[in-house]
């Protein structure tokens, strides 16, 4: 019984930070998949970042995107399908290769990707300014170093 009491005490102490991390992950996940408006166009962050990624890497495949975004091919295909249906992206097959579909943005998609980039520059600048007011620049650098290590840890587990 004493052993379980010790475990409970350790658990209570250790989970304070872990719970904060879980809350951040959940809130950020909800933020990513919420609808955002860019120039009267509604997209979630996954869709707009996928569009921008295709814009910056013309000819990328859905398989390549699935590896980059750590999503299933099916999930990426659904996102790409939404972008195609909305007129932002088109699939093209290269000569002598009908199997592999390459992704390219349309002019409409290119314009929206540029609007998104401007939005992100302003948003990231504003968020960084807020964080630097609350924490030091060194704290922020440490946070990103820790985040980089955490990402490496999670990638190693998959």
TrEMBL record:
It comes from the Bacteria. GO terms for molecular function: DNA binding; DNA-binding transcription factor activity. Keywords: DNA-binding, Transcription, Transcription regulation. This is MarR family transcriptional regulator. The lineage of its organism: Bacteria, Bacillati, Bacillota, Clostridia, Lachnospirales. The keyword Transcription regulation applies. It comes from Mediterraneibacter catenae. Residues 1-152 form the HTH marR-type domain. InterPro entries: HTH_MarR-typ, Metal_resp_HTH_trans_reg, WH-like_DNA-bd_sf, WH_DNA-bd_sf.
